[in-house]
TrEMBL record:
Residues at the catalytic site: K195 (schiff-base intermediate with substrate), K248 (schiff-base intermediate with substrate)
Residues noted as binding 5-aminolevulinate 1 in the record, renumbered to the chain: R205, R217
Keyword Isomerase: no
Top EC class of this enzyme: lyase
Similarity-based family: Belongs to the ALAD family.
Catalytic activity field: 2 5-aminolevulinate = porphobilinogen + 2 H2O + H(+)
Species: Caldithrix abyssi DSM 13497
The protein, known as: Delta-aminolevulinic acid dehydratase
Pathway where this protein functions: Porphyrin-containing compound metabolism; protoporphyrin-IX biosynthesis; coproporphyrinogen-III from 5-aminolevulinate: step 1/4
Annotated binding of Mg(2+), by residue: E233
């Protein structure tokens, strides 16, 4: 009979030793909670494809942010859903727009909360694309100018960090220049550097009412087949002055997270997107999986792959579960 000499099971015998040799630790400090803000008063519209998530009016959003803060979550990222949409997404660049008023209200009521704004146009344009459309395609360079205007309204409203998600070439450089030229050199940029044209965004587009009205986003978001190209995108954004680099989605792209982690020294964020969240919720509602264990396993795997920060709709649940552990 073969008797093994090496026995890795020795270090798995009880919870104490497992804790002692654990390599990856998930913490509430890692979590960023996405929130959707809409016009009106006393509005809390359930997003049916994302159980437990809502479109909030500003008054109720502020209460929700207090709860997020009580749970110890350090940061939120905000998405605006304006009443008014037009071809260039004017509400996105308006100092009195939905997101700008939401940021002000939150920073007044819960100044300790770190407020990140998503910087994009898809929720604000009537065609649902992430910038100005010329000849049926998003025009890169005129969108850069619009992005500069948009971030200044976020900065003036009091945003702590801006997160451009439109995958325009040069977006980080253009935004850095706009911020620096206007006295906002202290505001960091978290770039959605490697953002894929993914089917996992489906529920988000319901939530944010941002589905493209024609075509798709494949002329600006990345082809899911490509990983080297992600590294090129990341290099460009680092060179243009990004402070944090994001990979999105997370779960089908753990290999990309790992490769980015090994390539750069900046913090890496990963977006555990709406479709990834909703699949877990749906299976849990059917009683097919243990929601808590699956969620914590997923979030841990994203960290193990190399992410320092995780944007996730599971943040509130995870914060509660981590506090129980
Ligand atoms: C674009 C944006 C999207 C998401 C975050 N920012 C959608 C898109 O590119 O269509 C998706 C997030 C998610 O699915 O959770 N502003």
């Amino acid at each position: 009979m073969f008797t093994p000499y090496y026995r890795p099971r020795r270090l798995r015998r009880n919870e104490n030793i497992r804790r002692m040799v654990r390599e990856t630790h998930l913490s509430v400090d890692d979590l960023i909670f996405p929130l959707f803000v809409t016009e009106g008063k006393n509005v809390k519209n359930p997003i049916h494809s994302m159980p437990g998530n809502f479109q909030w009016s500003i008054d109720l959003l502020v209460e929700e942010v207090k709860e997020v803060h009580r749970l110890g979550i350090p940061a939120i990222i905000l998405f605006g859903i304006p009443d008014h949409k037009d071809p260039v997404g004017s509400d996105a660049m308006n100092d009195e727009g939905i997101i700008q008023r939401a940021v002000k209200a939150i920073k007044d009521a819960v100044p300790e909360m770190y407020v990140i704004t998503d910087v994009c146009f898809c929720e604000y344009t009537d065609h649902g694309h992430c910038g100005a459309v010329v000849d049926g395609d998003v025009d890169n360079d005129s969108t850069l100018e619009m992005l500069g205007n948009q971030v200044l309204t976020h900065a003036r409203a009091g945003a702590d960090m801006v997160a451009p998600s439109g995958m325009m070439d040069g977006m980080v450089g253009a935004i850095r220049e706009a911020l620096d030229d206007n006295g906002f050199e202290k505001i960091p940029i978290m770039s959605y550097a490697a953002k894929y044209a993914s089917a996992f965004y489906g529920p988000f587009r319901d939530a944010a009412e941002s589905a493209p009205q024609f075509g798709d986003r494949r002329s600006y978001q990345m082809d899911p087949s490509n990983a080297r190209e992600a590294l090129y995108e990341v290099d460009l954004d680092v060179n243009e002055g990004a402070d944090i680099i994001m990979v999105k989605p997370a779960l089908s792209y753990l290999d990309v997270i790992r490769r980015v982690r090994e390539r750069i020294e900046l913090p890496v964020a990963a977006y555990n997107v709406s479709g990834e969240f909703s699949m877990v919720k749906a299976a849990a509602q059917q009683g097919w999986i243990d929601e808590k264990r699956v969620t914590l396993e997923i979030l841990t795997s994203i960290k193990r792959a190399g992410a320092d920060l995780i944007l996730t709709y599971h943040a509130k649940d995870a914060a509660r579960w981590l506090a129980e552990l």
